[in-house]
């Protein structure tokens, strides 16, 4: 295993310990609002501080970009860590056990190492560029399902909890599949695509810390990742499709139907 991946695993597990301890006493949790439907707790901040401390102790010349504290370290560093200390904060504060820690390493802008850790299930997803994706040391692959009407999708788009009320652009995608799930944690959505629990994922307006680790996992597990035009601008736009190859093609087609002659 790559030494930088080992450090990321160590950091993710430490953050997971902080999160698990806090989950035992949610009534004492201090919650602040960052924006509409966007919350932050002292647990998010403590977890991020723990991750940054672990990463920078091992690699003091690396930069770290975190959801809570922004960029720390050199602006033009060759290596940059991208972290989400607690993706699924709304789930967490409600006691819904669907949230995770996400840590990715980029080298000159390319994601090379990735860790997603689900502390409630003790599930550790890892990936290194060129070496595959693993769940608790077992190699995983994207789903082999090919029929779109049998595909189960994850989603993060407006009103994706209710496809009938969602954006018209996504309605055909939702209605053509067997179902759409909004789990409340994008990093787990992507990890689940990588290990075949979901056949595809569609997200709108996401941030780099939502996408960096999970995107590498999907790719290393044999899947495809692109923006809504089938291009590679998803990290900039935050609009992303990720799926097994057969399902990806059909998701993309449903978003971009041929115009009438």
From TrEMBL:
Matching InterPro entries: IMPase (IPR033942), Inositol_monoP_metal-BS (IPR020583), Inositol_monophosphatase-like (IPR000760), Inositol_monophosphatase_CS (IPR020550), Inositol_monophosphatase_SuhB (IPR022337)
Catalysed reactions, as listed in the record: a myo-inositol phosphate + H2O = myo-inositol + phosphate
Keywords: Hydrolase, Magnesium, Metal-binding
Cofactor names: Mg(2+)
Pfam families listed in its UniProt record: Inositol_P (PF00459)
GO MF term list: inositol monophosphate 1-phosphatase activity; metal ion binding
EC number of the protein: 3.1.3.25
Any single GO BP term: signal transduction
Endpoints of the signal sequence: none
Binding site for Mg(2+): 67, 84, 86-87, 210
Enzyme class, UniProt record, top EC level: hydrolase
Family label: Belongs to the inositol monophosphatase superfamily.
Name under which the protein is recorded: Inositol-1-monophosphatase
